[in-house]
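call fold(seq) -> tokens
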Amino acid sequence: MNVKFKPENNTFEIKDGLRTVYIVLIVLMFINILNGVIYFIGNRVPPFEFLHYLWICTGLASLVILWFFIFRKSSLSEVPLDQIRGVIEKKVLGKKKLLLQLKNGRTRDLPQMKTVSDHLTLRKIFEDAGFEIR
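ret:
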């Protein structure tokens, strides 16, 4: 995990490549929705079959995931200290994970904590900056 606090800018610098992962996921969701639309334009059969319902479910799931990644998640590489509302600790599949909750309602994941010592180091960085971890 490569998180550094820069006191001269009052920002946290996070280098984890999350932006590229989110961009790939967003592009895949757009392609998935486009593929479903093309399927429905090409097959105008009034009685819906199983494949039609499958494409409808896939398209709706893609829309929900797309909305989630565009409006609820953040991939900032430099997060100003005044934009952070708090730090949240979650347990996912038995591993502890930290999230930055931003003032605009989004969350910034910190996904690359491979060991317990990485997690403790990251906790200490945020506690030293004055954040209470909930």
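The two ends are 20 Å apart (CA to CA).
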